[in-house]
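From the pipeline queue, job 12 of 40. The input is one protein chain; the requested action is below.

Action: predict structure.
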Amino acid sequence: MSKNIGIIGTGAIAEAVVIGLCSQADPPKNILLSPRNQQRAEQLAERFSNVEIARDNQEVIQVSDIVFLGVRPQVVEEVLNGLRFNADQQVVSFVAGCSIKQLEGLVEPATQFVRMIPLPAIARHEGPIIMSPPSQEIAELFEKLGSLVQVEHEHQLETFCAVTGLMAPYFGLLDQCVNWLSAQGIDESKAFDFVGALFEALGRTPRDTNEKDFGNVAKEHATPQGFNEHALRELTNLGWYGDVSDVLDLLNRRLEGKAGFEDEVRLAQVKKED
């Protein structure tokens, strides 16, 4: 792509996006980073010849055709307040929970908006990338960096975003498995290698088998009266999967502005009352 790209906010996600863009076969010719998080920006500029660091955020806007917003939602207004955007610029926001309606007043007079949810795996050209509304120009930029999913309505993007909140709990589950194995006398490094390899292989299974129903995958792994059927039954009876749905509901309400970080599902209290 010959257009100039600018990025305001050089956090972990913005860093992953830059690495993904610059490590593909046909990288963008120019990427200008804001000086925010100077150390990370300098590392990217040293690593990639097409990446430079701007004097300030306003310079990023002045020279860029496409401006990516990678700041935290808690400071988005503070960072964007006072900046002057251009009417013909395309603004692509990575800011979770910040709607296009909220952005409109912050990036005037720009009117072309896209919201995206890239994940850290984009640096390796893996994982899902959610985008709304669909944009051919932005899709061409990202289609080789993962599994691009374009949705028409912003609320659909928010719903997908809720599920990304399970990344840390997923790794927490793996950590619990390693801790349990260690408690049984297994060497911790061997436990880590085993658990990592097990779940990595499981993650590839639906793709490798072209199976489109995770319920079917679960049944195929649940040998009658075997360990997997036993574990699936017990976790189901404990309400484990219902608990996950309850947490996703809470995260979705937070994305809609109907709940905050301090709110809880209070699953333990509900179970206790039942």
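Job complete. The mean pLDDT is 92.
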